[in-house]
Specification:
The complex is a heterodimer of chains A (116) and B (114).
Chain A lengths: L3 E4 L2 E4 L5 E7 L5 E7 L5 E9 L2 E4 L6 E3 L9 E3 L8 E8 L11 E2 L3 E5 L1
Parallel strand pairs in A: 2-11
Antiparallel strand pairs in A: 1-3, 3-8, 4-5, 4-9, 5-6, 7-8, 9-10, 9-11
Chain B lengths: L2 E5 L2 E5 L4 E8 L3 E9 L6 E6 L5 E4 L2 E5 L3 E6 L8 E9 L10 E2 L3 E6 L1
Parallel strand pairs in B: 2-11
Antiparallel strand pairs in B: 1-3, 3-8, 4-5, 4-9, 6-7, 7-8, 9-10, 9-11
The chains are: A mainly beta (116), B mainly beta (114).
Amino acid sequence: NAGVTQTPKFRILKIGQSMTLQCTQDMNHNYMYWYRQDPGMGLKLIYYSVGAGITDKGEVPNGYNVSRSTTEDFPLRLELAAPSQTSVYFCASSYSAGVRVGNEQFFGPGTRLTVL
Amino acid sequence: EDQVTQSPEALRLQEGESSSLNCSYTVSGLRGLFWYRQDPGKGPEFLFTLYSAGEEKEKERLKATLTKKESFLHITAPKPEDSATYLCAVQARGGSGNTGKLIFGQGTTLQVKP
């Protein structure tokens, strides 16, 4: 299994441009998450999904959108990029949630985004 | 408000010098506490989940413990390959319980010198 894969690895955007960060998992996990990590700030949840067709906002959703049309894919869309969105973005997935089995999240390698 | 605080922010050890990392948490009700390891330029890697006060889990030189207010990650006789950032996260009961949402601390960066 490849686990959680993310593309691209690096990207530089100009202010006002848009882009989609791709995330795919091959573990048949229902739960998927997008986090951003800023230096010294830990990870903050942007959006999450509990299954195909179901998404909801996390702690810092402004400026982002998501969709979940399949179990495997959970793309993150940035509209009108701003310098404040410069960060490292991680996608994660888990088999279950709220129970004691299979609820650990598996993370992708990340996308490093710079907005200039 | 649910909150997680890790200390120290950074820790330098000599190879073989044991120590502990701290994770203090304030949540409306703890469903689980997670420890992750993160190497530079990579995604977090799962280490442990703890659910109840008094619970302990071990993996090689690492041992995680849990009380009602904090968790410790004990590192015994560390080696240079243990150098990484260690992240603590909590899952709270209530609305986030069935969604798996995690609240992360800011991490402790450990450097082990030979």
